[in-house]
UniProtKB/TrEMBL annotation:
CDD domains: PA_subtilisin_like. This is Peptidase S8/S53 domain-containing protein. Residues 16-262 form the Peptidase S8/S53 domain. Keywords: Signal. The keyword Zinc-finger does not apply. Belongs to the peptidase S8 family. PROSITE patterns: SUBTILASE (PS51892).
Length: 290
């Protein structure tokens, strides 16, 4: 736990104070990653192994009680005795300092977990114990509950399907559009809202210029059938509200990496809710145009 009191600032959702398990703890931060400019002039994050080793040594010398290391690659390519970052962490554990490391964000596929060394406390990410429901009402009076971070006024517009595989899309300016898998086709079209049908996902984003509504393929197909069977399809979108308790209980997030580790399959990690990080809101934009 960080010991920080964190004020929730996600619009009007879940307002209040979140307190860690050690509210009086102090934090020591060691920087090991940097923005490095590539040959193309673009900057990208890069973490130095030398800096990682030095940070661990400094933390041991400073007398920290717990280390939290949110570092790891996307491919489990080295065993626990070959990866130098693991050796650095072993020095800390040998001094009696628990080291907590992330399982990775390459889920939900199997054999994607990283940081699987037996001396590491490997943690997954979970969805929150709540969901953010938005009511959408179609012109035929069908009502669906979907998820979004939309907090604006109620929207009532025409409804259209935007086919990313076709150039023959009618004018959708001012309408709410249904798309599958990607927001890319929406760029520059002046839509009022987007209903994005995709594989089950625990990540929500907030779009800049319009309401973003998230649902699965099944509901997306139902909405598509309504659009194709109506001469003038419409939709009404309400602001999202917070639902707590069942059935919105915490679960391992879809993007969190799964085991077993392909290099060291004999090492199994048991995910305990006491050591899981909650994270199902993604406030950054998935796509730069938005």
């Amino acid at each position: 736990m960080t010991g920080l009191d964190i004020l929730d600032t996600v619009g009007d959702f879940s307002t209040g104070t979140v307190r860690g398990g050690a509210p009086k703890a102090r934090i020591a931060s060691y920087k090991v990653c940097w923005n490095v400019m590539g040959d193309d002039g673009e900057t990208d994050g890069s973490c130095s192994l030398v800096d990682e080793w030095k940070a661990v040594d400094d933390a041991i010398h400073d007398g920290v009680d717990v280390m939290s290391v949110s570092l790891g690659g996307t491919i489990p390519d080295d065993s626990e005795v070959d990866k130098l970052e693991f050796i650095a962490a072993f020095h800390a554990v040998a001094k009696g300092i628990p080291v907590v490391a992330s399982a990775g964000n390459e889920g939900p596929g199997a054999q994607t977990v990283v940081n699987a060394a037996p001396w590491l406390l490997t943690v997954a990410a979970t969805a929150l114990d709540r969901s953010f429901l938005t009511k959408i009402t179609l012109g035929n009076k069908q009502i669906f509950l979907v998820e979004s971070l939309y907090t604006g006024p109620e929207i009532s517009t025409g409804l259209a399907f935007l086919n990313s595989n076709s150039d023959d899309n009618s004018d959708v300016k001012g309408k709410t559009v249904l798309v599958f898998d990607s927001l890319t086709p929406v760029a520059g079209k002046g839509v009022a809202g987007v209903i994005l049908a995709q594989k089950p996902d625990d990540l929500l984003s907030r779009c800049k210029d319009f309401a973003c509504i998230f649902t699965d393929y099944e509901l997306g197909t139902d909405i598509l059938q309504y659009i194709r069977s109506s001469r003038s399809p419409t939709v009404r979108i309400s602001a999202a509200t917070t639902l707590t308790g069942l059935p919105a209980t915490a679960k391992v997030a879809a993007f969190s990496s799964r085991g077993p580790n392909s290099v060291s399959p004999a090492i199994l990690k048991v995910i305990d809710k006491a050591c899981v990080i909650s994270n199902n809101i993604w406030l950054q934009q998935k796509l730069k145009p938005f």
